[in-house]
Design a protein that fits this description.
Blueprint: H1 2-22, E1 28-30, E2 35-37, E3 45-53, E4 56-64, E5 86-95, E6 102-111, E7 118-123, E8 126-137, E9 143-153, E10 160-166, E11 170-177, H2 206-236, H3 247-268
Parallel strand pairs: 9-11
Antiparallel strand pairs: 1-2, 3-4, 4-5, 5-6, 7-8, 8-9, 10-11
Subcellular location: Cytoplasmic vesicle membrane; Golgi apparatus membrane; Mitochondrion membrane; Preautophagosomal structure membrane
GO biological process, one term: protein transport
Membrane topology: Single-pass type I membrane protein; Single-pass membrane protein
């Protein structure tokens, strides 16, 4: 039962290995539902640590560029730097008090020609791990070299690096950056705008037109009664109901409405035709 659950995951994992082996790494990592965009980490980065190797000290100096090849250092002998096409170069420098620094080894941990990156991610803590491959070192007893970079999700960090270990074949590097935060689907800003999409139509102001009509009608009626009452008061000294303009007309309005309704009802009511039964008088 456990094997059945693992088989789909293993298939997807090795499928990714096959694709990544033949496809140039563009600093974008895509899993089935999770994506990482590492393009913000492009460019050369330098990380170092100093180890106590009494009676001297050894400084591990790491130069790396995740997205492109490292540039050749000017003024540095060719044998003191990694060959062209390297993406990660580890230089071990022996430091002893009172003596000049001595470059003990220059190790190409990751090379574009042999990169073959493999990926894995974790959601607790959120991170993505990339394993880069490089040349064999040293020439006398060659061992395949590689760089294992774990980029932890830290929205507030500004590229904090830390060399965890180097066992002679694999260098483990921890990197805290915003790029280590996963996202689903296309990254915001990369989605293509939808084409042939009509702008939203603004509904016509039918309701507002009716509102204006009734407002004007109300103001007209109000002005009619107000001015009419003022005219009756100033001209005839009227008071009470006598202030109503055309009072006699408004008194007759209920009766006129009654007559209109009665007339309409008589027209709507079906007419009855008289039927004559029995004998007709001669």
């Amino acid at each position: 039962m456990i094997l059945r659950r693992l088989l789909p995951s293993l298939f997807l994992f090795y499928g990714a290995l096959y694709v990544n082996a033949d496809t140039p790494f563009d600093c974008k990592v895509a899993f089935e539902n999770i994506n990482f965009d590492l393009t913000s980490l492009a460019g050369e980065h330098v990380v170092n640590r100093t180890r106590d190797t009494s009676p001297s000290k050894t400084m591990d100096l790491l130069r790396l560029d995740l997205c492109n090849d490292l540039k050749t250092l000017e003024g540095v002998p060719e044998h003191d730097q990694c060959p062209t096409g390297s993406r990660a170069c580890l230089t071990q420098i022996v430091q002893k008090e009172g003596q000049a620094d001595l470059i003990a080894s220059v190790i190409p941990l990751a090379q574009t020609a042999k990169l073959e990156p493999t990926f894995s991610y974790s959601m607790s803590p959120k991170s993505v791990s990339i394993l880069f491959h490089g040349a064999e070192y040293p020439p006398t007893t060659p061992s395949p070299q590689s760089l294992n970079v774990t980029i932890l999700c830290d929205p507030e960090a500004t590229n904090i690096h830390n060399i965890l270990s180097y066992d002679g074949t694999v260098l483990a590097l921890e990197w805290r950056a915003r790029a280590g935060c996963p996202f689903e689907g296309e990254k915001e800003g990369e989605k293509e705008p939808e084409k042939d999409q009509d702008p939203p139509k603004t509904p016509e102001g039918v309701g507002s037109g009716l509102g204006w009509f009734f407002l004007v009608l109300f103001l007209a009626v109000l002005a009619y009664f107000g001015l009419g009452a003022y005219y009756n008061y100033s001209t005839y000294g009227a008071s009470g109901t006598d202030l109503i303009p055309h009072r006699d007309f408004w008194k007759e309005v209920p009766y006129m409405l009654k007559d209109v309704v009665s007339h309409l009802c008589s027209n709507v009511r079906p007419r009855r035709t008289a039927t004559r039964g029995g004998y007709i008088a001669v």
